[in-house]
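Q: Entry one of two.
A:
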Amino acid sequence: MIREKERTDLMRQYADLFEIDANLDRLVKRIELLSYVNPLNIEKEKHRFFASKYSDDPEFNYPKLKFDPYKLHRLFFSQRLERIDDDEIRKLYQEIIYFYANMVQCIETVGQSRKFYYNSLGIYGTPTEKDVQNAKFILHYEDEAPSSDMEKIFSPEEARDYFEDFAQQYDFPLNIRFSTNIAADAMVSNISQTMLIKKNTTFSKNQLLTLANHEIGVHLVTTFNGMHQPLKIFANGFPKNVETQEGLAVFSEYMSDALTLKRLKELAYRVLASDSLIKGYTFSDTFDLIHNQYKLNRSEAFSITLRAHRGGGFTKDRLYLSGLRKVYKRYAKGQNMDHLLTGKVSIDYEDQIRYLQSLGLAEDITYHNLAFARKLSNNATLDFILNNLK
């Protein structure tokens, strides 16, 4: 960790940069997209959709905005980047501002159908034809034999206890709270450094291992690594960081031997659900594709469809599989992952991270991913699949 005197010297040398970075930190704290895009009435609308025999599309309600989008936009673009003398750093912060301004537009239009969808595309993009081919390649494999590890028998309270025990391997605090308004069974809130557990669900033994290595082993590791960096943008997030961060998180599942073919298929279904948006599919159309054509059970099909259609069309989920492919290819080449764990960063910005480190404006990681070091992966089928993704 950087010493106080070194930090003071850096802040004096790069005073304008640190002032802008701190300003952006205050602004970004107000715009965590996932806190706005998760519907408030999931269970009610799920029941109504099933009761209608999958014909009446859900009508989701969303949290109200807690900021003025126009004023926030103005504050982002009022930053005097010309005061940053270093061309490379100035360009990085220009891209950061454009990225977060796009995020504001996205949040402003949550629930506004195609308007939100097109704003979502600006942040997360849409599946490529190669992504869709990879998804279909995975889905042609036969399901694994049933296992007791896949039985959902653990309560949210038991899940909390499991995650607390798991986190003792890491030297950072684990804050946990329950929620009924999240699409996933568990997720990390980066801004509050909190792990959220879905209250009305149950967990399997494999799922607990998967979530622990995904959410704690990567998402919280990069959260706390980012908080130890001199620049706050490492904690808040570089542009286009989701693909890298989710790729690392699923790779952590793989390296801990938690990743299953069933889980890989889930990521493939998400790609197809995201791809259905650009084709104009309604909620019931996407559900029909996943449930009736691909024969996934209705509860899991609803969850995948919900994740894709929330907000009006949310393509974030298509990045898990492509992110895993990129991280796995990197691993296969023997490349180090440490730069990607320095915070909420992207593979695309690795050169900039190295440059910031050379100036003392970024540091080596404080926390490591334990699964990466232990390398417990032992699944020949998954190895073959991952080696053959295009």
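Q: Entry two of two.
A:
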Amino acid sequence: MPQLAQRMSRAKPSAIMVIAEKAKKLKAEGRDIVSFSIGVPNFLPGAHVYAAAREALDKDSGQYGSNRGPDVLLDAFIAHIEALGLTGYTRANITTGVGAKQVLYNLAEALLDEGDEIAFPAPYWTSYLDIAEIVGAKINILPCPPEQNYKLTPAQLDAALARKPRVFLFNNPSNPTGMVYTRDEIAALADVIAKYPDTWVITDDIYNTMVFDGVGYHNFVHVRPELKDRVIFVDSLSKTYGMPGWRVGFIAAPEVVAKAVTTLNSNHITSLPEVTLAAAHAALTGPQDVPLAKCAEFAIKRDRVYNALVSIPGVACPRPQGAFYAFPDISVAFGKKHNGVAIDSDVDFCAVLLEAKGVACVPGSAFGEPRALRISYSCPDDALDKGMARIVEFFAELT
């Protein structure tokens, strides 16, 4: 029998989706399940987005679109990032993709030859490791434990970039931790990056509008404009606008990188559908009241989750200031039992928690930190409160 390509031995299903599917199965069997597993915003975009989609349907040309994206959408995204303080970009610097994940995959293909090194901090989004492994990159993971608030230090970055990796991948605000780097922290890292001109820098910053406590969103280019010729900014409509199923991602990048990703689009996807592009344009250019309101709501949810977690003896949780995740260190539970069932790891913890209390969380080892678990707190308030109460109760029952 013919064999699969060797790279498929390095490809594996998303750990997040495995947990989500198990929770869905239990719910279908009649269990009362609270799912904190999938990172979706759980709100819908404004009515103007749907109106634009319907109008595009009525006027559908049935033709292929641009590999890069239509000019009106590129211009809308340029205006969007200018509001973030990322200025001086033209259409030649922008391209689109089927969500940020496909954009990141294209970037891996465009920038990494097999055996090239990519460096990124842990905790990391699960797909960083998966994509890097599929393309055959050499991976340098930079551990950022809860003791340093899950944040990369300049000394760590200096040591990593001294190895001359082809790519440094950075995520701010962070999935899975919800941590946000201050301007001073970004400036200190940017000073290190400036010393190593042969490394591409990808900033996967799709939660850039979901920042709390007045911290603000900061990018390396803000503090070191000369880095613009090798910093690649990744964004998406999924989280900000409640549009994960619409699958629209963007990059703002040096022209050579944007052109390379556009070329890959021509081979991978040809173009995004007209209806999707119309909805994306409406989201970027229309009223911004829904994203603003949801950001305020997420800050309140953050407080409820954080307060519940830090009330549990032995649980440590650096205070998240963005996105909609908390990433508590639950290693105090290791070596204990729940109703006679041993818990020796984060995977055990999540499995027993789901079975005993009907709460689905993703083990931290999926994100490179096996002492933790990820809570996605974008669910409705009643489910959020019920799920957190069950987690508190679960800890109280450990022996």
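A: Comment on entry two: The chain has a mean pLDDT of 95. The chain has two domains: 6-44+290-396, 62-285.
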